[in-house]
């Protein structure tokens, strides 16, 4: 980011964003001065509050602050940015949490954490040598179980027994949006971890309430805020219903626009419909999946039926 753009972007922050930016700046300065203080912060807010906008600015700021401290020939990385899904990670120019922390694939309702060793551990420790900041977006989709594994993995990466290996951690997201596919909410510690420290309770809280996207449309802002908490007024519901277009045509026609459905059954029904329609125009090839074991003792063999999920959504 050019210097003039960076400076003008900072000047354009609202008061809440400025306060958050200053809070992170103080933590960066303390870390550069060798302080042991650690910033664990949860940043939330509704749609249009500027969370993603601020996230990208903070990444730029952190890199600018740390870059002069390390020889650029080492190609150091100072901040890791990640999200649970590939789509969300791409929006913030980051990676998936599974790729960064080698999160286990959920089998049933359990996740088994396995420590790293050997070359893989040394490789990750080298990669994290200069990384003192982790930013996670869409935290609502991250289960407490995965948050705990991230905490343990960072302790391995940094060879440090402090919380999250002593790494400063910023969590961005709206808890009123998508929940974890499996596991508990990130703020609900399962009873079987009750003897451990509650990780979520270690985070301080910052809420962005100023809407930066629809500042000139107070009616629309109120509608979005009420929809976020499920408390639409009759007039707001009527306004939304006026926007319904059935049948959908033009740029919203079947096969043109992406559709979002509330249930898996509706998704499957629509996909089946589109497959049937496409088969009238194109030849459809059916490829049967073959399940093979990747375990050392049974490599290449067909697993027994009881370990193959019936639901494709449970497949790794």
TrEMBL record:
A molecular function (GO) term: hydrolase activity
Reaction(s) this enzyme catalyzes, per UniProt: ATP + H2O = ADP + phosphate + H(+)
Biological processes per GO annotation: DNA recombination; DNA repair; telomere maintenance
Annotated InterPro entries: DNA_helicase_pif1-like_DEAD, P-loop_NTPase, PIF1_helicase
Reported cofactor(s): Mg(2+)
The enzyme's E.C. designation: 5.6.2.3
Domain of life: Eukaryota
Keyword list, A-Z: ATP-binding, DNA damage, DNA recombination, DNA repair, Helicase, Hydrolase, Nucleotide-binding
Pfam families assigned: PIF1
Annotated DNA helicase Pif1-like DEAD-box helicase domain residues: 13-235
Transmembrane segments: none
Similarity comment: family membership: Belongs to the helicase family.
Protein name (database record): ATP-dependent DNA helicase
Origin organism lineage: Eukaryota, Metazoa, Ecdysozoa, Arthropoda, Hexapoda
Gene of this entry: LOC111364297
């Amino acid at each position: 980011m050019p210097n003039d753009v960076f400076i003008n972007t900072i000047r354009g922050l609202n008061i809440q964003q400025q306060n958050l930016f200053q809070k992170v700046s103080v933590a960066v300065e303390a870390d550069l001065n060798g302080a042991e203080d650690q910033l664990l912060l949860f940043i939330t807010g509704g749609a249009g509050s500027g969370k993603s906008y601020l996230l990208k600015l903070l990444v730029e700021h952190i890199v600018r602050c740390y870059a002069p401290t390390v020889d650029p020939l080492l190609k150091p990385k100072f901040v890791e940015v990640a999200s649970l899904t590939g789509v969300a990670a791409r929006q913030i120019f980051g990676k998936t949490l599974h790729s960064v922390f080698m999160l286990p694939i959920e089998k049933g309702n359990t996740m088994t954490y396995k420590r790293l060793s050997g070359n893989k551990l040394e490789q990750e420790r080298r990669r994290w040598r200069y990384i003192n900041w982790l930013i996670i977006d869409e935290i609502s989709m991250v289960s407490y179980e995965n948050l705990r594994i991230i905490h343990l993995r960072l302790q391995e990466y940094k060879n440090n027994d402090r919380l999250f290996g002593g790494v400063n951690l910023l969590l961005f997201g709206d808890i009123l949006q998508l929940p974890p596919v499996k596991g508990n909410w990130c703020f609900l510690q399962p009873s079987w971890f009750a003897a451990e420290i509650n990780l979520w309770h270690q985070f301080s809280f910052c809420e962005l309430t100023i809407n930066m996207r629809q500042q000139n449309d107070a009616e629309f802002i109120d509608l979005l805020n009420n929809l976020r908490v499920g408390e639409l007024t009759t007039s707001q519901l009527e306004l939304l219903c006026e926007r319904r277009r059935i049948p959908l045509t033009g740029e919203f026609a079947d096969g043109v626009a992406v559709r979002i459905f509330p249930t898996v059954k509706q998704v499957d029904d629509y996909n089946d419909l589109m497959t049937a329609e496409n088969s009238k125009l194109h030849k459809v090839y059916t490829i049967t999946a073959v399940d093979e074991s990747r375990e050392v003792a049974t490599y290449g063999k067909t697993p027994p039926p009881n370990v193959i999920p019936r639901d494709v959504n449970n497949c790794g």
